[in-house]
Request: fold
Amino acid sequence: MSAVLAVDALHVRFRSGNETIDAVRDVSLRVAAAECVGIVGESGSGKTVMFLAAMGLLPRHAHTEGRIRFEGIDMLGRTSRELNQVRGSRLAMIFQDPMTSLTPHLTIGTQLAEVLVSHARLTWRDARLAALDMLERVRLPQPARRLEQYPHELSGGMRQRVMIAMSLLCKPSLLIADEPTTALDVTVQAEIILLLRTLRAELKLATILISHDLGVVAGLADRIAVMYAGRIVESARTAVLLRGALHPYTAALLDCVPRLKGPRWDRMPFIPGSAPSASSREPGCAFAPRCAAVRERCRSERPSLGALGAGGPTDRQVACHFPLAT
Amino acid sequence: MSDALLEVRKLEVRFGGFTALEDVTFHLHPGESLGLVGESGSGKSTLARAILRLIPPASGDLVWSGDNMLAWPAGELRRRRRDMQIIFQDPHASLNPRLSVGDTIAEPLKIFSAELSASERQARVREMLERVGLSAAMAERYPHEFSGGQCQRIGIARAMILRPRLLICDEPVSSLDASIQGQIVNLLADLQREWGTALLFISHNLAVVRHLCQRVLVIYRGRLIEIAPRDALFAAPRHPYTQALLAAVPDLTGGSVAPAARAHDAPGGCAYHGRCGHAQGLCLTTVPPLQPVDPHHDVACHRWREVVYS
Reply:
């Protein structure tokens, strides 16, 4: 299967003053057509920066190495004019906060139609019809009325539906959704998850779902990659990963998901300490200081991301010297 | 209930023409941990602020250990505030960036325990820092040097140094990473147990509430719609909204998120009837009062006897 997005040995570095921050460190990732890949990690793990790099949205002082190809096109080192051909049409991104992603002084109809006028050269009239059609598709109630409304007149869940509609107008082959439900109430979150699941099936859309919430990712992704301190530490099919993690970090993260059913714990599980600073350059495994199963080798030698059972049903990768038994 | 630390009776809060809280009645026992859950805009934070008398109620009573809080003059209110403290969602934003951590934690002592000498104050601050899992040496440092979890510990130290009888926690772990949330929740549970502090724990995260709280209040559009002991609420929720809330929490089985019935809030009757799959007749015309399911469990639903939770 050919990859829609191929990231190879990506490294993203920021310099600020005399500090060097390595936000993404030697990450490789493939996303196949119509596949949904979940990227899980905590704040500062590099999960957002990686995809800002893929969209060409990093600030100018960012230094990137490696290669990102989208539909065979090299995305690094392009001018913004060249990137604009791809961004918003073939490659779309939605963010956590739908309010700040929409322009406050333009109606929903104008904002949606503008996308088609500029990318697909439609007339304003046709573009508005297409926009209405897309709002129906994302199951926004009373779509015709919404076209005339401004962002502040909609609820958070409705605004996220508008953002999803906008991202899909030009029939992208890849949608990058960065924490799309984090700012929403839990009942609205469930609606948006259901919508994304339906749209994926209808449109055969490849999706990258970035989230800190394993529960959200588990409901949507075919495959999950877990990031820690700028690196992918484990990657596997969703069901396989949830059944038994190989990396102690993934296992600890799974334990930390509070449950509504089953026995209550006396103590809520947590991972001691906190994630290392993105400027740290320790030689060993970045998780070693917090790992319950740490050994001497972990502190001196960094484990590389190794493949297990490649191609087979247990196809997975883990970066640990002493992976947990499953 | 006369042995309650706090009694809230028929509390109503209005902002202009908008009624943010209506007919809110509940009590909180000394040392109890009470959860308050509901969606954004439901009035959770407004209730917290009204209890602290940061915003005035339009009507109703607030009773603190049998004492009418609303009758306290300004001086009395200031003195009593040492017994009721609050911590917030954003731990960085709630700390003054120009104050060292030590000065931040010492501030309540300067106001309420002016008799302490500077060295006594410092000793108390160091002791408190260690109690919340930080080191005494951190007193000299500033908030920007700390992670979100550490800043929340500092906020807890500042709130707890006066040993208040009530700590209101407004979404205290919502902005923290999953691996850190447990550290803070366990710390709050320890302080509640060891020091007998009552907690009003506001959260939209039901699973965290299940872990920490002995009793749970569910609020919808400014009204309490269910009050129940923890185990009863999670095993047998009675209100259709509570049921929808529980069903919507994504779990790790990867399949079972169930969105609430899709419709809009409709005027008149039960505030939830426009979204409720069980609404009929009376629900469209009459606001349901809280009624007992059993002596410890109240629900505001006309049809709770017929609504079955699976």
In short: The CA atoms of residues 72 and 78 of chain B lie 9 Å apart. The first helix of chain B runs from residue 44 to 51. DSSP finds nine helices and twelve strands in chain B.
